[in-house]
Design goal:
Blueprint lengths: L5 E3 L10 H7 L13 E3 L3 E4 L4 E4 L4 E2 L8 E2 L4 E2 L8 E2 L4 E2 L8 E2 L4 E2 L11 E2 L4 E2 L8 E2 L4 E2 L8 E2 L4 E2 L8 E2 L4 E2 L8 E2 L4 E2 L8 E2 L4 E2 L8 E2 L4 E2 L8 E2 L4 E2 L8 E2 L4 E2 L8 E2 L4 E2 L8 E2 L4 E2 L8 E2 L8
Antiparallel strand pairs: 1-2, 3-4, 5-6, 7-8, 9-10, 11-12, 13-14, 15-16, 17-18, 19-20, 21-22, 23-24, 25-26, 27-28, 29-30, 31-32, 33-34
Length: about 300
């Protein structure tokens, strides 16, 4: 006989909620359970032999109908209450075994199955990020880095550079500098130096010179001077001397002479005199004499002659 939710087949009688009551009215002393296979439930329901009812299939299971028992929902599918077949998990979601509903892919993970049916979220790879509720991981942009399971890109810190798809910041090499968010190192400009992991160029100090891409200041050579913030050392002019790491030329003292690019004063030779700032010795004039390191000619005294 046909019932509301299915059919019990037993001696031509409908068996359901009123099975026991009907048996008593007919004078049947013992009531046995309907035999297995005698229940024909509609899809989405199943036969409960304990209460002689056709129950709705529980969430997390599907019921094909007939005399089949509830079947656990497989991985990659979900089964709402009353399901007669599993539903494929949609993109951007995952469905574990006996899933009652799809679960959104959490941040740091992606659910990439193009046809759905994802059983569990997949961690985002290094160099990529996953904001959540996504089927695809996104490449980390230049100027940022993305560690494993990154939820969002992280800006490259100062002193480091981050090409596209970086999983971690790369230290800035010597002779270059990297500001925050740098995707590649920038060459250290002239007149500056940049050590390893430099965040910004540093001005060349006085007494040193810094060509382009300098990793450290270069001391000024003897016979040259470096005023600072310069890429080239300058030759010491005549009449001055410049020791090593000279910040500025020093005027040649009296009694000495200083040709161009002098690193130290040269004593004036005998027969010559050297005033302050002399670039070469001057001959002692007639009627005078000049000893070694003479600052000026001295008149010939009485009783002597000075040719």
């Amino acid at each position: 006989m046909q019932g509301e939710h299915g059919t019990w087949l037993s001696s031509g009688l409908q068996l359901g909620i009123g099975y026991v009551v009907l048996a008593e009215l007919l004078g049947i002393e013992e009531v046995s359970q309907p035999p297995h296979g005698s229940c024909l439930a509609r899809p989405g329901r199943y036969c409960s032999y304990q209460n002689f009812n056709h129950d709705v299939c529980d969430a997390g299971y599907f019921c094909e109908g007939g005399n089949a028992r509830p079947t656990p929902c497989p991985e990659g599918f979900f089964c709402a209450a009353g399901a007669h077949s599993p539903a494929k998990c949609p993109q951007g979601h995952y469905c574990e075994k006996q899933a009652k509903a799809p679960v959104r892919c959490p941040p740091g993970f992606h659910c990439p199955d193009p046809n759905g049916g994802q059983a569990k979220p997949t961690p985002c790879q290094e160099g990529f990020f996953c904001e959540g509720y996504t089927s695809k991981q996104q490449a980390c942009p230049a100027g940022f880095y993305c560690e494993k399971q990154a939820k969002a890109p992280v800006r490259c810190p100062p002193g480091f550079h981050c090409p596209a798809q970086s999983s971690k910041p790369t230290p800035c090499p010597e002779g270059f500098f990297c500001a925050a968010g740098a995707h590649s190192p920038a060459k250290c400009p002239q007149g500056h130096y940049c050590e390893k992991q430099a965040k910004a160029p540093v001005r060349c100090p006085p007494g040193f010179h810094c060509p382009a891409q300098s990793s450290k200041p270069t001391p000024c050579q003897e016979g040259f001077f470096c005023e600072g913030y310069t890429s080239k050392q300058q030759a010491c002019p005549a009449g001055f001397y410049c020791e090593k790491q000279a910040k500025a030329p020093v005027r040649c003292p009296p009694g000495f002479h200083c040709p161009a690019q002098s690193s130290k004063p040269t004593p004036c030779p005998e027969g010559f005199f050297c005033a302050a700032g002399a670039h070469s010795p001057a001959k002692c004039p007639q009627g005078h004499y000049c000893e070694k390191q003479a600052k000026a000619p001295v008149r010939c005294p009485p009783g002597f002659h000075c040719p």
